[in-house]
Structures are given as structure tokens and as C-alpha cells.
Request: fold
Amino acid sequence: MGSERKEENQTELLRPPRSMPIAGAPPGTPEAPPCANWSCAPHDLVLLGFAHVPALRPLLAALFLAMFLLTLLGNALIVLLSALDPALRAPMYFFLRHLALLEICFSLDIVPRLLVTVLWPGRGVSAAGCALQLLLVLSCVTSECFLLTAMAWDRHVAICRPLRYGALVSPRLCHLLAATCWLAGVPVSLVFTVWLFSFPFCGPRGIRHFFCDIAPLLSLVCADTSVFEASVLAATVLVMIVPFCLIATSYGKILATVLRMPSATSRRKALSTCASHLMVVVLFYGTTGVIHLRPKASYSPESKQVVSLSYTLVTPMLNPLIYSLRNKEVKAALGRVCVQRRGTCTP
Reply:
């Protein structure tokens, strides 16, 4: 009861000023609209992430910080190994390096604000800061969808058309695909961020989430958002479902090719090169799809926060572990780089 009352008091403090009678108006004049003092002159928003468990905030902050540091360390290690070791210059590791860079950018956008929200609840974030975070989130999610598709295509060519792999997957094409993946998310995120923040906001200033996302921000809009939601759904189909179908098609052809291989050793080796990427695809699409396919669904805010943690913290942290623990070449490269660095430091 005490924690519920404390949460209610905190939420009440975040509400906009109550409707006030118009100054100088005769008695009986209707009060000003509820959102007149807020939506017309935007104030700071307040992220209410994990406000329902105030006693766990110190523990959550320590856990999130540890996951954040592991994410930065693991992905930075992937970037350095693929850049320093000549054995990791294949296109597969080129795309893996870009995936690691993308996860670092994603984590830097989410986790620092999350730690501030957990450690100092009630601290506001400006509308411009919230819009910038949403812009980066949408851009990173879109770029990751396309990058995972490019990685699936690379595996498809390597297994299904190995004799033409060097000619089809050229360094120039790899750089072009990587640049396209990075830039593809910018127009999509820019359009929907500007569109969403052009709506009038009213009601409480509190966002029941730990970062600025479409679903929690939609709950603050006091206007008809049906066209916006339909557009978000259409964009989600193009950005997430179409790449996922392409990935599924690639792996269907890979499986058909592997089953035709005469040697069990060849089948096992071919599948092992795809297992890590397939695990990452399942983790990413299994969590982002739940949130972004239904932006205003009837999920509770608490369940949305848990699902969002999966693809904002857990998946970026697990990606380097999945690729390094299941990949002998990555582990061998780590050993070679460590030996070289130890040799250069030895007098």
C-alpha cells in the first residue's frame, strides 16, 4: 500500500496545472481546456521507467550499468578484432563489425538516460531531447533490420553459390550495402519523429517507459492518430517484415542446400557458420516485433518495459558473446591479437 500511494503521489506531481478560470471572466464562464497550459507550450517530459518498483531501483541501476559495460566491451572487442586481425577480413566479419558498431550506438542512446531515470526519478527531459532519442532509436532499429538482411544474404551466397562468392560479394558491394544500411534508417525515423511531435500533447507529463518510444508517446497525444498509426504499421511492414521474409527465404535455401550435402562434416560446418546469425535474428525480431507491430496495443506499460529491455539491453550484450563463443575464428583471432600485444610490450 505504501509503495502504491507513493507512486500515486509521484504521478500526481507530474500532472499539468489544473484548469483555471479565465482571468477577468464573469462567474460561470467555462474553464480553460485541460491541455491549454501544456500542449500549447511544451514543457519537459518525465520518464517514469520502473516507477512501480521503487525499492529495486538501486539494484536495477547496478544491473543495467553492468550490462551496459559488458555491451560496450564486447562489441568494441569485436570491432577491434575484425579491424586488426587479417584472418577476419572476410565479408561476414565486415558486416559483423558494423553490427557491433550499431549496437554500441544503440546502447549509448538508451542506457545513459535509463540510468538517470532509475537513479534520479522525476528528472525531466526536454521535448527536443526526447525527439532526438526517438529519432536515434528508430534509425538504429531500421538499420539493424537491413544489416541483418545483408548478413543473411552473405551467408546464402557463401553456402549456396560458393564458387561465385568472391565475385558476387566484392569489397565495393560490401561497403555500399553497409552505407545503405546505416543511411536507410534516417529518412524513416526523421519523418515519424517530426510527425509524432507535431501532435498536441496533453494530460500528465509522465511517460510510463524508460526511453522515448512511439507507443508511450502516443498515449499522451490528445488528437486523432489513426492515420499516423496506420502509417507506422505500413512502415513497420516494409522495415521489419519484408527484411524478415528475405532472411527466412535465405535460410530456407541454405537449409535446402545443406541437406543435399553428402558429408555430415560439411553439413555441420555450414550450419555452424549460420547458427550465430540466426540466434541474433530470433532475439532481435522476437522482441522488436511485439512492440513495433502494435504501437498502441493493450499491453501494460510494465510488460512493454520488460520486452523493450530485451532488445535495448539484452540483445546488444549477447550479440558479441554469441558470435565469439560459437565462432572458432573469432576466438583464434583474440588469441593472436593478445599474443602480438604481449610480444610488443615485452622488452
